[in-house]
Amino acid sequence: MALVKLGRREAAAATIGAALAKDPQNAHTHANQGWALLHHGDHARRLEHFREALRLDPELDWARAAWSRPLRPAT
After folding, report:
1. What is the pTM of this model?
2. Where are the alpha helices (DSSP H) in the chain?
3. Are 2 and 31 in contact (CB under 8 A)?
4. What is the mean pLDDT of residues 53-72?
């Protein structure tokens, strides 16, 4: 998430993608990918990753918070 907040989206995508390839069953990595996609505006894919994060760890509150976060209309 630090890379996303620094505006380094491509680096964040590469880092998270590599982590998911190494361990696709990691709920935290899926949640991180969801947050990165949220910041990038890819709302359909963000939901896929938050859904998977919560499937893997139903108690992952910060993924649940993002899952239920309302979308703001584009301006």
Report:
1. 0.81
2. 2-5, 9-22, 27-40, 43-56, 61-67
3. no
4. 83
* CA geometry: angle 52, 55, 56, nearest 5 deg: 90
The letter for the amino acid at 7 is G
- Cβ 25 vs Cβ 56: under 8 Å: yes
pLDDT tens-digit readout, 2-44: 677 667 777 878 899 899 999 999 999 999 999 888 888 888 8
Query: Taking a C-beta distance cutoff of 8 angstroms, is the pair 56, 27 a contact?
Result: yes
- The sign of the CA dihedral 32, 49, 17, 28 is positive
